[in-house]
Design goal:
By secondary structure, the chain is an alpha+beta fold. The chain has 2 domains: about 150 residues, ATP-grasp fold, B domain (D-amino Acid Aminotransferase, Chain A, domain 1, 2-Layer Sandwich), CATH 3.30.470; about 110 residues. The chain contains 6 helices and 16 strands. The strands form 5 sheets. Strands 10-11-12-13-14-15-16 form a 7-stranded antiparallel beta sheet, covered by helices on one side. A 3-stranded antiparallel beta sheet has the order 1-8-6. The protein has a two-stranded antiparallel ribbon with strand order 2-3.
Length: about 280
């Protein structure tokens, strides 16, 4: 079988053999310098494919311009990519844009490094399955079983990302933490934050310990109530009109960028994520 499999990097990581190089060398008439008995596997490798698709919508392919692209670095990590910032994702080719491959002495270590790679991989301008992959690998069952029924068992009703309301709450908590830090004279991060979404903060009032503000996002203006300090907040999304709907409250734990390698560490509804957040205005 001369066809190269898309997961060939996992073989290369555990054997140290560059399969692509040897395909080319054999094709031009060279002989292999080793036999099967000379090939030894060391450790474990796991590959995650970053696809331009929407896992919450039957994996519908996505198109657009890559407005942000940043690859992770770390021990045991390898990135194979076919895009860069400014690349166009079109409907004419496969939806895969990059592969993150992690190697470790054990499956657990490989999974840990893969999660680190996913958390520090950044791509913007086009929807991808990155959050879906993170959801898969952070579940305890991923480390306890290997089955082709994993997805149907873990997401019986289908996978859904954090919703618009949760992103609104995170943005509000980040703003409160930034304001608190500014008053204390200790900026959270000297470099510009990368974009998490299209949020613009307007009309702030009060203090981070107990404050209200308006947040202008994709769903329009939303009034927010924030209680808490020092990275632990309760963010309430208030009804847009009196008597219309109910107040939705999220407990959020937020860790500043300098504590998490340049990204915000968020705990929400028992799930941990690393996010890129921008505050404008």
């Amino acid at each position: 079988n001369t066809r190269l499999q898309v997961e060939h990097p996992t073989t290369e990581m555990v054997t140290g053999i560059d399969l692509v190089e040897w395909q080319i060398r054999v094709a031009r008439g060279e002989a292999l310098l080793w036999s099967q008995a000379d090939v030894h596997a060391t450790g474990h490798a796991i590959e995650a494919r970053i696809n331009a698709e929407d896992p919450a919508n039957d994996y519908l392919p996505e198109t657009g311009t890559v407005t942000l692209y940043r690859e992770p670095n770390g021990e045991g990590l390898r990135i194979d990519s076919g895009v860069a910032q400014g690349s166009e994702i079109t409907p004419f080719y496969d939806s895969m844009v990059a592969k993150i491959i992690a190697h470790g002495s054990s499956r657990g270590l490989a999974a840990q490094r893969l999660l680190q790679g996913l958390n520090h991989f950044a791509i913007g301008g086009v929807k991808t399955n990155q959050e879906f992959l993170t959801s898969i690998i952070t579940r305890p069952a991923f480390h306890q079983e290997l089955t082709t029924q994993y997805l149907s068992r873990q997401f019986p009703d289908g996978w859904q990302p954090w919703g618009e309301a949760m992103h609104t709450a995170i943005a509000a908590a980040a703003y409160a933490m930034q304001q608190e830090s500014a008053r204390n004279g200790a900026p959270l991060n000297g470099s510009p934050w990368q974009a998490m979404g299209g949020w613009r903060l307007t009309q702030p009032c009060g203090t981070p310990a107990n404050s209200r503000l308006w947040l202008n996002g994709a769903g329009g203006l939303q009034e927010i109530s924030i209680q808490g300090r020092h990275g632990e907040y309760r963010v309430s999304l208030l009804p847009t009109e009196k008597g219309a709907g109910e107040t939705t409250t999220f407990p959020i734990y937020l860790y500043a960028p300098q504590q998490t390698g340049g990204q915000w560490r968020v705990e929400l509804e028992g799930t941990h994520r690393n996010l890129d957040i921008v505050i404008q205005g």
